[in-house]
Fold this sequence. Notes:
This protein is an all-alpha fold. The protein is built from 13 helices and no strands. It has one domain (about 5-270).
Amino acid sequence: MITKNLLVIAVQLRLLVIALQYVANYLIPDHDAKVFVYPRPLEVQKTLWDDIVLNVLGGLTQWDGQHFMHIALYGYTYENSLAFFPLLPYTVQYLAKLLHLPFLTFESQILLTFVLFNFVMFLLSACILYKLTESWFGTHRAHIATLLFCINPATIFFSAAYTECLFAFLTFALIYCSWKMHFDTFLVSAKWLFLSCLLIALSTLTRSNGLLNLGFLMYFFVRNLRNSLVHSTQPHLCIKLLKLSCNLVVLAMSIIICVAPFVFLQFYHHSNFCFDNFVNLPQEVVNHAVTNGYRLTGQYYNQSWCDFNYIPLPYSYVQEYYWNVGFLRISSLDMVY
């Protein structure tokens, strides 16, 4: 297990990052890059505690954090938010409602929950990384690897309202579960396979590249299956071929289960944005859409991604339409700023 001293360092570094972002956000004026800003809730009486939370932690909601704050507050109301996946903001929304601090507005509770959730996820990620590295390379290298993870140059994104922290936790946990997967007399162990599939399914709902995590499951599955067949004491070739065939069928079914949540999410977005339906939206959301020209849910705008042959994929369309971003393409924002 991770040492107490290393865990204390991880906690101290998280607190230091939060403190540094507050100082930087206070001293350095925000650059107006004409990017998305979520509409602030109307007719809400803010308290002194709200001012403290929004001022101290407000620097953690910049750029993509604005989209995740918006989804956690209002759901998927704008088409440009479809590039951001639901597991993190909806988890934070649920936890904020569960937390229910009466002296804070819901907006402040969402922001505070984002920071606290990422704080916990970061510590869990560090623990799993330590355990995984220790299993492969020993205690000394595990200590170094975890320390480098804690002080990596992108560490601010592990405290901000971003998916990096949750995705790191899911990926590290997946690698560990896939590595622990073993084969019994005939079939793969159900426990570790189920945990691996669950973690991949959750990662596909966290980030678009969560689908790439299938590679870890497939690699360890095939490697362990091969080792099981090579070292098997079963002399009959037919039995080995039957074991190989059955386990490959199990792998194929597991991949389908892993990808299913991602596919269902695409059809969910299609049903919300590719048909004209009445949706009762907060007035501030509607006003913000009219002012900035955002496409609202429940209103069909003849989007090209709505015309699909197999699975509707709004992600690539939204990336290109709103930010001119694509595979191996430099966006206009990168060239200007």
